[in-house]
């Protein structure tokens, strides 16, 4: 077993909501609540959850774009939880990010060549001639024309821009790439190309991905392992190839809510009642209990821990042993 | 969709061009700049180029050389080896033509003369130098201060923001013009002082603008991407945030130049401006007061000059604003 | 009964860069109580299509250049494009309702939910304040908003995304229209909420018997909702058929490519390369003379580029705009 590249322990982050004339904290959005995750070298961990579940906040925390309230982030053997930005700067070379929105993540006033080459420039790793060559190489590698070098982001389509974003992320050959919804803003026919590109690059540069998405199908396709997040907590973790065996009621509901492109599929569907509760005041006990079809009294009072229930399977559910893999999963597999 | 090649600047220019008045204004401003730069060659009491006794010289650069009127006297008496090119307007701003005091526009003095016999065209041309340099330098100072403070406040937030924002609020509480008057009363009027004072009282608008733009851009993902790349604060502010604020700052600068020119004119008019010996549009107006009833050209000419210039800068500013954000236009 | 007959509908935008052919000769029928899904990628013209049906195209720069929209309800058949603005206004909201992707932008933030639904009812149906209020509450109940009497006093920002979309649906259905046009109504929602809204729409359709025009990019959603499907590419319908025909026997290479490029849960596909459609969608202002899909198509031959493609050149028996289907 290879040593893990990223290890997160009990990571917690809340955002204050200020009110009144004095700007006092009146409430706190509990975005991430005690998350433990580890990612092995060369692995792709998919992090899936609905909007507001804290998955993007988790990504920002790992990248140290925001500071955690509690917990530990150990990256490549170093504790970076409270490392000052100046010491963090050299470490950033090995930790990069691809964002969701290819329109917002590229500076519209910079040429594509400058955007991709910027990490090289700020880390002063090459001369300007070499930098140009490297950028040219990468343009080719991500499937863009060399002419793109001097052009501006608005001249490209969404898929092409995302390629630029990916090129920028890998130019320093990082160890970890955090991909935050990298294909969610793209059309179906473009999505596949970007996913394929991400996989090619992973093999070529032996990258490790934390792949964040709300789309379980995309996550299932690209990941080795999947972590399901709900209201700031990890609900379940399992090998991606064993999705049908996942037993947590929330995971099952997620799977069954995905529309299947087959008009003849008649299937039993678990439609969750109600909305995701507010992260300002998460439910007591198991945070899923107000929507869970199997909730019992103990779920309201006692918070379940993320426990192992099978080889590579972990879940936070009091009754995980009584749950069985839902028929929806197997039905999908047969399709 | 893939657009044709188009940079942000060319996009703005294309929108800007749609306003015909603004394009005309741009020409007016360009012409003013050329006139101001070439003032010594256009209106001077000394020849541009002269050959006398076999020697070439450029008397316009030599304050000790003979003036045109003196040369006229010599020309008649000398043996003929005297040749020179006149500037188009053969009067300096301080050439006293005592033969035609308070002359209305004539062939000799195209826009007349003032009470001391000084040519109005010449004063107008030299005065444009003052207006232009006050406008540009004063707003240049204001823009530099405004951009730096705005960036610091918007990027770092917290205490820096708190202090700078309060400073801006305090500054905007004072009526700027009286502030300028008060300060000038202490430091004494000179062009340099006027420029500096207008500059250090005029930065608040730009600072506010940059701060706002900074807050808007700071949360964008490409700034996060730059942080993740390991870029330092300075680089992020300079490369990633400032370019976004630049266009609105340019609009503000355009309006600012107009108001600085107006402020200088007003100060000179009140006698707090440039020394009386230097021609400026404001001081011309100030002197014209004495002859209000007989010398209409004395007020009309510098007044129109101020009007046209300010109008031009304002029109440019407005067209720029519309070009940056075409949706704002109704 | 055929409720809506659209013939050769063509909407263009006249911009500085040239004429954008957003909808180019769309022809379809919509039957009472049935659902037509218009599916396509971003920029294919599907949203302009739905706005055109409501005559909500901003003019200028846009204009419906030709075509007819025959609407056939109890008052007889008439061409929506020939109605006066006033007559059209009376059809909008009353006979044809519409919901959008982002309910927040289509709900007015300064009025309560109850106010806005009530206004729609009062405008088209009239009635006393009490009647309007009762009807509003009934509508909110119908779309599954709990505690409607309290909720109707809330403002849009106080509701969650799913609840807002429900309120939006309540507003669109307040006058029991014959047709509901839904433009990407679930795209901004989470999957679990999307499932709720889709269920709700199907239920309401059964109950109220309205026809739905459902515009989306998500083939999964299409499979759940559609009776008829129209696949749109670069402003044109490239394939039209029943849900079974499109999913089980797609003829057009673009439809086939779209269906293949969806990742599936099928075992053993993890880590395998996804089939893709290479290339990019052509610009609507600069379309080729022949088939717009030619540059991305595997089956492309010379004929595709040189010749405009008619509706069914291969005699499939339904619209399949391809020479080699």
Structural description of this entry:
- The complex is a heterotrimer of chains A (335), B (330) and C (325).
- Chain A has ten helices and twelve strands.
- Chain A has 335 residues and is of the alpha/beta class.
- Chain A has a domain of 94 residues.
- In chain A, α3 crosses α4 and α3 runs parallel beside α5.
- Chain A starts with a strand and ends with a helix.
- Chain B is built from 13 helices and three strands.
- Chain B folds into two domains: 247 residues, MetI-like (MetI-like fold), CATH 1.10.3720.10; 42 residues, no CATH class.
- Chain C is 33% helix and 24% strand.
- In chain C, α4 packs across α5, α4 runs parallel beside α7 and α5 crosses α7.
- Chain C is globular, with a radius of gyration of 21 Å.
- Chain C starts with a strand and ends in a 19-residue tail after the last helix.
- The model of chain C has no long low-confidence stretch (mean pLDDT 85).
- Chains in contact: A-B, A-C, B-C.
State the main characteristics.
heterotrimer, B: 330 residues, mainly alpha, MetI-like fold, elongated, disordered N terminus, C: 325 residues, alpha/beta, 10 strands, 33% helix, globular
Order of helices and strands of chain B: HHHEEHEHHHHHHHHH
Continuous helix count of chain C? 12
Strand content of chain C: 15-25%
Query: Shape of chain B from CA axes?
Result: elongated
Number of domains of chain B: 2
Helix content of chain B: 55-70%
* Terminal Cα span of chain B: 27 Å
CATH architecture of the largest domain in chain B: Orthogonal Bundle
**Strand arrangement, largest sheet of chain B?**
2-1-3
Number of helices of chain B: 13
- C-alpha-based Rg of chain B, rounded: 25 Å
């Amino acid at each position: 077993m290879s040593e893990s590249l990223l290890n997160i322990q009990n990571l917690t982050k809340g955002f204050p909501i200020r009110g009144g004339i004095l700007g006092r904290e009146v409430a706190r959005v509990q975005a991430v609540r005690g998350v433990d995750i580890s990612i092995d070298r060369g692995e792709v961990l998919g992090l899936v959850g609905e909007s507001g579940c804290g998955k993007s906040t988790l990504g920002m925390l790992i990248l140290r774009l925001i500071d955690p309230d509690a917990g530990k982030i150990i990256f490549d053997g170093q504790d970076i939880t409270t490392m000052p930005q100046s010491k963090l700067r050299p470490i950033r070379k090995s930790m990069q990010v691809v964002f969701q929105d290819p329109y917002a993540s590229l500076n519209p006033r910079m040429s594509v060549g400058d955007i991709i080459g910027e990490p090289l420039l700020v880390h002063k790793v090459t001369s300007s001639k070499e930098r140009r060559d490297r950028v040219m190489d990468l343009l080719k590698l991500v499937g863009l024309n060399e002419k793109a070098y001097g052009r501006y982001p608005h001249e490209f389509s969404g898929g092409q821009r995302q390629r630029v974003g990916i090129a920028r992320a890998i130019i320093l050959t990082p160890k970890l790439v955090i991909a935050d919804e990298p294909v969610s803003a793209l059309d179906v026919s473009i999505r596949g190309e970007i996913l394929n590109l991400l996989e090619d690059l992973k093999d070529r540069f032996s990258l490790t991905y934390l792949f964040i998405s709300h789309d379980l199908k995309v996550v299932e396709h690209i990941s080795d392992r999947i972590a399901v997040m709900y209201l700031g907590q990890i609900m379940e973790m399992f090998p991606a190839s064993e999705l049908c065996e996942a037993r947590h009621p929330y995971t099952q509901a997620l799977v069954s809510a995905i529309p299947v492109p087959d008009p003849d599929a008649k299937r039993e569907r678990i439609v969750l009642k109600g909305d995701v509760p507010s992260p300002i005041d998460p439910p007591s006990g198991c945070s899923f209990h107000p929507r869970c079809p199997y909730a019992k009294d103990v779920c309201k009072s006692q918070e379940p821990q993320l426990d192992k229930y099978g080889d590579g399977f972990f879940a936070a559910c009091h009754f995980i042993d009584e749950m069985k893999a839902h028929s929806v999963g197997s039905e999908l597999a047969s399709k | 969709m893939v657009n044709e090649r188009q940079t942000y600047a060319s996009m703005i220019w294309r929108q800007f061009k749609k306003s015909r008045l603004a394009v005309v204004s741009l020409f007016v401003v360009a012409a003013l700049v050329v006139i101001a730069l070439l003032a010594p060659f256009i209106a001077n009491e000394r020849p541009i180029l002269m050959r006398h006794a076999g020697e070439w010289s450029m008397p316009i650069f030599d304050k000790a050389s003979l003036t045109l009127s003196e040369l006229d006297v010599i020309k008649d008496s000398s043996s003929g080896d005297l040749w020179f090119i006149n500037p188009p307007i053969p009067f300096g701003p301080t050439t006293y033509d005592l033969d035609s005091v308070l002359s209305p526009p004539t062939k000799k003095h195209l826009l007349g003369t003032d009470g001391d016999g000084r040519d109005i065209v010449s004063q107008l041309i030299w005065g444009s130098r003052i207006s232009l340099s006050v406008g540009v330098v004063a707003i240049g100072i204001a823009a530099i201060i405004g951009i730096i403070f705005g960036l610091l406040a918007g990027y770092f937030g917290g205490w820096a923001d708190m202090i700078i924002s309060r400073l801006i609020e305090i500054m905007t509480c004072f009526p700027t013009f009286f502030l300028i008057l008060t300060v000038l009363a202490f430091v004494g009027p000179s062009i340099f002082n006027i420029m500096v004072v207008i500059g250090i009282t005029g930065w608040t608008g730009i600072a506010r603008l940059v701060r706002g733009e900074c807050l808007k851009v700071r949360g964008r993902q490409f700034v996060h991407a730059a942080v993740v790349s390991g870029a330092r604060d300075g680089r992020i502010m300079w490369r990633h945030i400032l370019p976004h604020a630049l266009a609105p700052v340019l609009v503000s600068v355009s309006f600012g130049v107009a108001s600085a020119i107006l402020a200088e004119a007003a100060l000179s008019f009140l006698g707090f401006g440039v020394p009386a010996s230097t021609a400026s549009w404001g001081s011309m107006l100030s002197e014209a007061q004495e002859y209000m009833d007989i010398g209409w050209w004395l007020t009309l000419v510098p007044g129109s000059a101020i009007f046209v210039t300010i109008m031009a800068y304002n029109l440019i500013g407005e067209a720029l604003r519309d070009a940056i954000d075409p949706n704002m236009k109704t | 009964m055929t409720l809506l007959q659209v013939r050769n509908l063509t909407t263009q935008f006249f911009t500085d860069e040239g004429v954008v052919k957003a909808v180019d000769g769309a022809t379809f029928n919509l039957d009472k109580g049935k659902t037509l899904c218009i599916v396509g990628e971003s920029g294919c013209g599907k949203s302009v299509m739905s706005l055109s049906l409501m005559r909500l195209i901003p003019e200028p720069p846009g204009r419906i250049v030709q075509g007819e929209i025959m609407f056939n309800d109890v008052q007889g058949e008439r061409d929506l494009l020939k109605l006066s603005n006033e007559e059209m206004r009376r059809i909008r909201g009353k006979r044809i309702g519409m919901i959008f992707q982002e309910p927040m932008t289509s709900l007015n933030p300064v009025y309560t939910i109850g106010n806005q639904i009530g206004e729609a009812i009062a405008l088209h149906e009239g009635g006393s304040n009490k009647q309007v209020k009762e009807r509003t509450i009934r509508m909110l109940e119908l779309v599954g908003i709990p505690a409607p009497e309290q909720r109707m006093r809330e403002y849009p920002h106080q509701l969650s995304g799913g609840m807002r979309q429900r309120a939006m649906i309540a507003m669109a259905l307040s006058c029991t229209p014959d047709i509901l046009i839904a433009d990407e109504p679930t795209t901004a929602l989470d999957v679990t909420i999307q499932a709720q809204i889709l269920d709700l729409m199907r239920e309401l359709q059964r109950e109220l018997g309205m026809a739905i025009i459902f515009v989306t990019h998500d083939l999964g959603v299409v499979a759940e909702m559609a009776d008829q499907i129209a696949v749109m590419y670069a402003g044109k319908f490239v394939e039209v058929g029943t849900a079974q025909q499109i999913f089980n026997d797609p003829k057009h290479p673009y439809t086939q490519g779209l269906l293949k490029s969806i990742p599936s849960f099928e075992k053993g596909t993890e880590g395998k390369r996804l089939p893709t459609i290479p290339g990019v969608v052509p610009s609507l202002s600069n379309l080729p003379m022949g088939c717009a899909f030619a540059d991305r198509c595997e089956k492309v031959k010379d004929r595709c580029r040189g010749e405009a493609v008619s509706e069914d050149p291969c005699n499939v028996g339904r619209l399949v705009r391809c020479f080699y289907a």
